[in-house]
Amino acid sequence: EVQLFQSGGGLVQPGGSLRLSCVASGFTFSSYGISWVRQAPGKGLEWVSAISGSGENTYYADSVKGRFTISRDNSKSTLYLQMSSLGAEDTAIYYCAKAINSFSIFGPKGYWGQGTLVTVSS
Amino acid sequence: DIVMTQSPDSLAVSLGERATINCRSNQSVLYSSNNKNYLAWYQQKPGQSPKLLIYWASTRESGVPERFSGSGSGTDFTLTISGLQPEDVAVYYCQQYYNTVTFGGGTRVEIK
Lengths: 122, 112
Hints:
The complex is a heterodimer.
Chain A: E1 3-7, E2 10-12, E3 18-25, E4 34-39, E5 45-51, E6 58-60, E7 68-73, E8 78-83, E9 92-99, E10 109-112, E11 116-120
Parallel strand pairs in A: 2-11
Antiparallel strand pairs in A: 1-3, 3-8, 4-5, 4-9, 5-6, 7-8, 9-10, 9-11
Chain B: E1 4-7, E2 10-13, E3 18-25, E4 30-31, E5 36-37, E6 39-44, E7 51-55, E8 59-60, E9 68-73, E10 76-82, E11 90-96, E12 102-103, E13 107-111
Parallel strand pairs in B: 2-13
Antiparallel strand pairs in B: 1-3, 3-10, 4-5, 6-7, 6-11, 7-8, 9-10, 11-12, 11-13
């Protein structure tokens, strides 16, 4: 059974940093690209970032480029999102999400983590 | 960037009736080399993670009830719920994966 378990959310001050983690199980982690998707309170879904299975290729939404860094440790089946220079606009539930197939990093996401809330506030 | 626009923002449908949600992209998401539309639909219930319903515009994900169907090609797509059930109350999102990822704004479906 595919599972994605997230951790690392919480309250952070504006300008601060935070790292999210997503531990995967039930599939060959290194074969799949994985994305981060966020949802501001009461709002819709926003794709944030994606990384290829090998970790060589990374992609970012313009809204987070230069501030967020996606990475993965395939030996630990873990995905990370390092967030810095956080602002109120980054307050959201963050989800990690895995595509249903291995050949497309951006493909349809059939598996989602439980989500973790990041609140940026003083 | 590909912009996805959904309509309506919300709709109320009687139990057993049909719900129709539209999604339009500002450029085609049809990949000519394989003739596939890079378009998915998700359902999100309150307090839950999104759930994949449809991909390749019309392929139902395993375990998704047959009352959910997707159609369309190029830039115009539709999600149809044929025979609305109480458990279908949710927000529905379209998503393109032709060029990175973008989501539509969502459509809230309620019982009339």
